[in-house]
Amino acid sequence: MTTAAVFLAAVAAWLWSGPGPATARLWRARERHPHSPPRRSRPLRTRFTDASRPSRRAAAWQAASVELCQGLAAELAAGRTAGEALARAVSAVDFPDPVALRPLIAAARDGGDIPAALLTVTPERGGEAFRELAACWRVSVTTGAGLSVLVDRVAVSLREAQAHRQDLAAQLAGPRATARLLAFLPALGLLMAAGLGMSPLDFLFGGPAGVGCLFSGLALDGCGLWWTNHLVARAQQA
């Protein structure tokens, strides 16, 4: 029984202390690279957290959009034409999906409808900067306003929004860590009970009462995790 309890505790710790975001990004980069050597299958925690991948992708688009606006403002300040500046700025930024931006680069180089191209390549999540740049482009063309000034203002607002998101993520790190700790406590309780000479697994799997306690505990633990994640998600959306 002690061995089983130790095994359960180790599995719980492994699931909740899997690879960090940097390691996950490295794995995704290796998967995209055609000459990358094969690697082992992803850990279970990575599979279980696939649901948060859209949020990470939106954050990547938002960070790249800030770089785009800064690069575009620098190119315009250097005296380049608007289309050439946009093409160079887009090419210099590492976007999550560079292939999707090829129509925008083509429109910028060929003198096409750049606002329409910006709206066309706008990602579903994290593409606020593209819509704002399209509006700036239309205002500049219609009224003759300086595009560099408008892009600078968009870049400032995007940097402020990014700083706010980072501050919010830092504040929510505590509740997330607490949820993970609470999820790990049942396995720790089994380990402690086994260390005291008890037989918790015999009780949990030895009769209807134990099975009922086991499933009730798992259900409550799952509900607690879901509720904590729900609160964190609502705080991020707000």
Considering the chains and any ligands shown, give keywords for the structure.
mainly alpha; 238 residues; elongated; disordered N terminus; 0% strand
Order of helices and strands: HHHHHHHHHHH
Rg (C-alpha, Å): 25 Å
Q: Helix count?
A: 11
Q: How helical, in percent, are the residues? A: over 70%
Summarize the structure.
The protein has 238 residues and is an all-alpha fold.
Q: What features would you describe in this structure?
A:
Residues 1-6 and 14-51 have low confidence and may be disordered. The longest helix has 49 residues, at 147-195. Helix 1 packs antiparallel against helix 9, helix 4 runs parallel beside helix 8 (128-143) and helix 9 (147-195) runs antiparallel to helix 11. The protein starts with a helix and ends with a helix. 18% of the residues are buried. The protein has a domain at 56-162. With 238 residues, it is an all-alpha fold. Helices cover 78% and strands 0% of the residues.
